[in-house]
Amino acid sequence: MNQGEHVTAKTTARLDDWRSFAPLDLHPILAAALDRFREHGYHGTTVRDVAGRAGVSLPMIYYRFENKQGLLVALLEDAMSEVLQRARLADAEAEGRVLERFSNVVECIVLHMTHRTATAGLDSELRYLEPANRKKYAALRKELEELLLEIVEEGVAQGLFEVDRAPDTSRALLGMCQAVTGWYHSDGPLTPEEIADRYVAISLRTVGARVRPAPRTHGH
Amino acid sequence: MNQGEHVTAKTTARLDDWRSFAPLDLHPILAAALDRFREHGYHGTTVRDVAGRAGVSLPMIYYRFENKQGLLVALLEDAMSEVLQRARLADAEAEGRVLERFSNVVECIVLHMTHRTATAGLDSELRYLEPANRKKYAALRKELEELLLEIVEEGVAQGLFEVDRAPDTSRALLGMCQAVTGWYHSDGPLTPEEIADRYVAISLRTVGARVRPAPRTHGH
DNA sequence: CCTACCGATCGGTAGG
DNA sequence: CCTACCGATCGGTAGG
Prior knowledge:
The structure is a homodimer. The first copy, chain A, is mainly alpha-helical. Chain A is 61% helix and 0% strand.
């Protein structure tokens, strides 16, 4: 069962600032797989394509990874682990102030969708994961959903937010953020930071936030 | 170049009530293709799979449709045409009352995402369309986006809605609705109508609608 | 509207 | 007996 040293995830570097995004430091094979999956989808990509683009032999892929599925698993889990880690930092930084917790987490998620569009956009390929792999990924995503839900519920409890149903609302918000990967391009008119700010404002309305925080400006 | 009588779209029946959804009356080949595309994706589906499930020979597929791409094109354009047609009816029914126009259109879009989850969920396969086909589909979708945007802008103009940027907000709303196809199941706890109602409420907050008399605590 | 096929390529693995 | 690979090819299947 256990063979060699397959690269699974753990490509993510240590994070100290949840707002800063260094270029993804992926194994060349994963970088190639990501590129092809984004362009042709999981099933539209051949392992030979990946090998060719990575400049390695096809057997090399199977030496480093269990199989084609292993490539998708590594990319998906890497991305989800990273955004989850960032979201927890963003949350913690607010030191319990609900409005700021909410704003930080939404900002962080949208920054992830823009700075990490390629990996974040792989979310739609999740259905091609084998059941065991999907379960692991779903568990990670559920943690993110529950973090946001908990914040929304706390906001309601404190009378700062007004929503009819917190679970529906937080799920809707997450879907709204995820959809950014469908249209964002790094050469578009808006920076990731601008988009994140706008989505924070939109999200605050969605939860019926009573107090509007002073607009944040991004200096240089 | 031109051969036979290819089924393109036009499977949609005439609509008189935008809230009622009859079962999709798809050509058996398209129904089979839809089933396989949903389960394995476009590239994960073989034309032989489709033939087998439809109970026809593989060449029969190519007799009725131009190629594999033609199956996806027909399904995608059919679905988008239908929701667009419904949205226009939903809009017209409000006879210019902005709050109702907005509520109707959002309700209608969410009803589409739930009653038509299979076809609506094919949206993520749009990137596999050849450029010419994608352009046609994108044009249809843009009409829906612009309908919603126009309503949001009118609401702002009339002082009924409060948003920072109408284009961002309406795009975010559409993404929020589209995401419903990712989790909705007909055997879940909520009916399409219940989900639509909840999304209307959420969306009204998102546009800052003065849906009920604002609590007059102090001046604003 | 079927049988019979094609050029090429699929994901994955052999021996060395 | 391990690692990092190679050229060649496996049994089957792809869209047409």
